[in-house]
Amino acid sequence: MKSAVETLNPTRVRLTVEVPFEELKDSLDAAYKKINQQVTVKGFRKGKIPARVIDQRFGRGAVLEEAVNDALPKFYTEAVNEADLNPLGQPDVDITELKDGEVLAFTAEVDVRPEIEIPDFSGIEVEVDAIEVSDEDVEKSVEQLRGRFASTNDVERAAAEGDVVTIDLEAKVDGEVLPDGVASDVSYTIGSGELLEGIDEAVTGLEAGGEATFTSQLKGGSAEGKDAEVTVKVTKVSAKELPELDDEFAQMASEFDTLEDLKADSRKRLENMKQYDQATQAQERVLEKLLELVEVPIPEKLLADEVQTRKHNLEHHQLGQMGLTIEKYLEFQGKTVEEFDAETSEQAIKGIKTQFVLDALVNKEKLGVDQEELTEHLMRRAASSGMSPDQFAQAVVEGGQVPMLVGEVARGKALAVVVEAAKVVDTNGEVVDLSDEDEEQAVETVEAAVDGDDEVKADEAK
């Protein structure tokens, strides 16, 4: 077999391959055997039809077509390996010559990973938020805990913000009660914003037995998006009673004996959270700086496929699960279709560029992934998917996704290398040391950059 490579552009090549006919022998034998099992010829047992009879009855061309289809993937793979290419996606194959008994020639155009030179990244500098936990932050955290231990008592007075009211609802559109517009014994905390817009104002000031009518745009159901006339009746008003903030509360709500110890623990947890957020911020900003240093050509077909995949996943998976259409999503986001397309393309380009650059850095730094690192990553992915580690591992193996997981871990390690070499300072001018940060956190940062933030935005839209 002879092959040659022509570079069409930095991300696409054309392979020209010429195969001596004798190298098709195995595929021709397999073609005759396959046809033998599929056809019946009077006078011959199934599977025992001579090749000359098959040629006469069904045509030599049919046999050649079957043989070539069987052989092409093997010859293409051999040519790719011989040229040491990193193909992306499926090739566009064109058979240029097929002479029975003489030669098979074909061309294959395919996108390839561009050659990327990783520049010196030791001069990268970024600024991140300082880790500051105020007394107000601690008090807010303790108050949230206190709220979880609140009790409610029925009261005979007008409802006010913070009260829990039990209500009946009836929604009408154009004077007709909606089939899904009636609800009874709904518990609602005034001021929580968890129900219809306008309901807080409607129920505030009402006592048990009182009712009010207001207009609100429906966010779901059979009349989603329409203005409805909503009648709300208060059947019960309950006031929340918060426990006293003292040592007894600390003992009830935590493992601590004193309120001061509980507050100290709250401060420590908040500091840890802010430290995690600071590390993530540093990783994101270092990655942005690294990508700015590298010029990366993006394969057009790969980009088009990635954009289409992102749109499909958003529309049919994320939004579909929430009962939202793409039109309603764009309305919530305040974007036009053109703006959405441009944003999706921008995210896809960043994702592809992130993979290319970090993969090149993995090769340059010769970064490997050991079993312990892969297992830790698998456990985290399993937890986020809602599957057990064994179930997730089985699905990964059966789907041939192990190399994908290895690649994710390796890219996280590559980003950790760049972050460790960068200078990171906080808004107070203090140098931030991230050398001991968990590499798995860097994996998560890379995944977010690669996958984009459509899921977050979908949740926000909901």
UniProtKB/TrEMBL annotation:
Q: Membrane-spanning residues where?
A: none
Cite the EC number: 5.2.1.8
The record places domain PPIase FKBP-type at 162-215
- Where mainly located? cytoplasm
GO molecular function terms here? peptidyl-prolyl cis-trans isomerase activity
Superkingdom, according to UniProt?
Answer: Bacteria
InterPro entries xrefs:
PPIase_dom_sf, PPIase_FKBP_dom, Trig_fac, Trigger_fac_C, Trigger_fac_C_sf, Trigger_fac_ribosome-bd_bac, Trigger_fac_ribosome-bd_sf, Trigger_fact/SurA_dom_sf
- Enzymatic reactions: [protein]-peptidylproline (omega=180) = [protein]-peptidylproline (omega=0)
Per the record, a Pfam family? Trigger_C
Q: SUPFAM superfamilies annotated for this entry?
A: FKBP-like, Triger factor/SurA peptide-binding domain-like, Trigger factor ribosome-binding domain
The alphabetical list of record keywords is: Cell cycle, Cell division, Chaperone, Cytoplasm, Isomerase, Rotamase
Its annotated compartments are: Cytoplasm
Q: State the similarity comment.
A: Belongs to the FKBP-type PPIase family. Tig subfamily.
Purpose: Involved in protein export. Acts as a chaperone by maintaining the newly synthesized protein in an open conformation. Functions as a peptidyl-prolyl cis-trans isomerase.
Any notes on this protein's domains?
Answer: Consists of 3 domains; the N-terminus binds the ribosome, the middle domain has PPIase activity, while the C-terminus has intrinsic chaperone activity on its own.
Record protein name field: Trigger factor
Q: To which species is this protein native?
A: Streptomyces virginiae (Streptomyces cinnamonensis)
Write the lineage as a comma-separated list: Bacteria, Bacillati, Actinomycetota, Actinomycetes, Kitasatosporales
